[in-house]
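Pipeline run #58 for the internal structure catalog. This entry was flagged by the ingest filter as a single-chain record with no existing model, so it goes straight to prediction. Upstream metadata was stripped on purpose; only the residue string is passed forward. Reviewer on rotation: M.T. Logging verbosity set to normal.
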Amino acid sequence: MNDYITYELNNHTIYISRINGNQIILPNSLNLTNNDLKRIFIKNHMDDEIPTQSIYKKELFKTIYISLHASSKCNMKCKYCFMQERPDVNITIDEAKCFIDFIISEFPKAEKFIVDPNQFTS
């Protein structure tokens, strides 16, 4: 288990692969054996080496992280912000779906897509 960084949070354990950065969150209530964990890690590519290549190949990506910022709203209280005035721009649900569909079509060999719908509120 030395290939993983672990954190405990709200009755869950977060495992982060030192090999490739993949992450998995498992509830502690499952009482998993080491063999169970190994099977879950293999299924989720936790031990896969990241091949280094000078050519970008979409088929190498197994997990795709999609971060959606649906709104440009913020409270503008950060002293270090480079934006003095920010336009109020939002994307619609249909635009978000189109973007996600586009990303999925661009990475047909990916096995997992993680969508993080961030929304700034004032």
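catalog note: The chain has a mean pLDDT of 81.
catalog note: The first helix runs from residue 34 to 43.
status: ready for reviewer M.T.
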